[in-house]
């Protein structure tokens, strides 16, 4: 399945708007010779979230799947524990607002919102509450990961990144099962992309224990925490990893693979579950005898 063929179905009693917009806009620019070039730029729209009429945060987003972004953001911020608690998500682009209603008040909301961490996410992501809260409650399964599976997955991902090819300026994230891409989301920032996928998973009650999460962005503490909260034990990126991202992966038991492109990758954590079953042929330097 691809992201386009796996629509999310709202649980009974949850009212959702359908306010997705085009992810790119047509523009004309001048190249280095002064000649006009028709092309596209990635959209960037401000969406302010209101929870039970209380303003929470403004997210910068492409706006293609705003309802899933809002739902996943609520989950990954740990403001809502169960999807059944959410009654309404209504996105209105004329006002640039997403109105969220829950079936009961959120306990300790003001206290949680008073503690804010500005993360390293593109466009400056924000995490409310203590970033390290509840980490000891996370228990991830140990899943075998084969080198050949990484190569197969990277090949399968090549056909995606459509917005990046068209306009650039975005990050992509994917929820994968084996080499199958269940959801692929491109967004202004990688934290928005992971939240959108979290929304799809929560909506469809998709388990994470047998999944792989792929991102084009770097593996920061925020990325590791969010993926662990989604129950996903393997995190794969074509970019690098930060010190805190590595430390949290070690603490939480997340297999961490970075700099994955072509046949190259760096395994930072999870060697016990990794099988080197398809090592690439070493290229000998020119002029040296075998």
Automatic annotation (TrEMBL):
GO-annotated molecular function = sulfur carrier activity; sulfurtransferase activity
- Say where the protein is mainly found: cytoplasm
Q: Which organism is it from?
A: Sedimenticola thiotaurini
Entry similarity comment:
Belongs to the FdhD family.
Q: Where's the active site on this chain?
A: 122
Q: Which InterPro entries match?
A: Cytidine_deaminase-like (IPR016193), FdhD (IPR003786)
Keyword field contains 4Fe-4S = no
Q: Does the keyword Cytoplasm apply?
A: yes
Known role: Required for formate dehydrogenase (FDH) activity. Acts as a sulfur carrier protein that transfers sulfur from IscS to the molybdenum cofactor prior to its insertion into FDH.
Provide the protein name.
Sulfur carrier protein FdhD
Kindly give the SUPFAM superfamilies that the UniProt entry links to this protein: Cytidine deaminase-like (SSF53927)
Compartments it resides in? Cytoplasm
Question: A Pfam family this protein belongs to?
Answer: FdhD-NarQ
The entry's keywords: Cytoplasm, Molybdenum cofactor biosynthesis
Q: Name one GO cellular component term.
A: cytoplasm
Tell me which domain of life the UniProt entry assigns to the organism this sequence originates from. Answer: Bacteria
> What is an annotated GO biological process for this record, any one?
Mo-molybdopterin cofactor biosynthetic process
């Amino acid at each position: 399945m691809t992201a386009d063929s796996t629509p999310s179905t709202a649980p009974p009693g949850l009212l959702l708007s359908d306010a997705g917009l085009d992810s790119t806009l047509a523009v004309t620019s001048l190249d280095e010779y002064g000649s006009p070039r028709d092309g596209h730029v990635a959209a960037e729209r401000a969406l302010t979230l209101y929870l039970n009429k209380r303003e929470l945060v403004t997210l910068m987003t492409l706006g293609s799947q705003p309802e899933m972004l809002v739902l996943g953001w609520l989950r990954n911020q740990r403001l809502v524990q169960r999807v059944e608690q959410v009654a309404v998500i209504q996105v209105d682009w004329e006002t640039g607002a997403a109105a969220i209603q829950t079936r009961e008040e959120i306990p300790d909301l003001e206290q949680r919102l008073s503690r804010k961490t500005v993360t390293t996410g593109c466009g400056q992501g924000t995490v409310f509450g203590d970033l390290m809260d509840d980490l000891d409650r996370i228990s991830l399964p140990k899943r075998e990961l084969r080198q050949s599976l990484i190569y197969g997955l990277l090949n399968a991902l090549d056909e995606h990144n459509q917005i990046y090819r068209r306009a650039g300026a975005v990050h992509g994230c994917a929820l994968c099962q084996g080499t199958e891409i269940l959801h692929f989301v491109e967004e202004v920032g990688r934290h928005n992309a992971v939240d959108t996928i979290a929304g799809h998973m929560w909506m469809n009650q998709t388990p994470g224990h047998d999944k792989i999460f792929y991102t084009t962005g770097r593996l920061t503490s925020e990325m590791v925490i969010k993926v662990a909260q989604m129950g996903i034990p393997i995190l794969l990126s074509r970019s690098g990893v930060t010190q805190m991202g590595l430390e949290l992966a070690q603490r939480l038991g997340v297999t961490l693979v970075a700099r994955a492109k072509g046949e190259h990758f760096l395994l930072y954590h999870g060697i016990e579950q990794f099988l080197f079953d398809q090592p690439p042929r070493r290229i000998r330097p020119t002029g040296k005898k075998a």
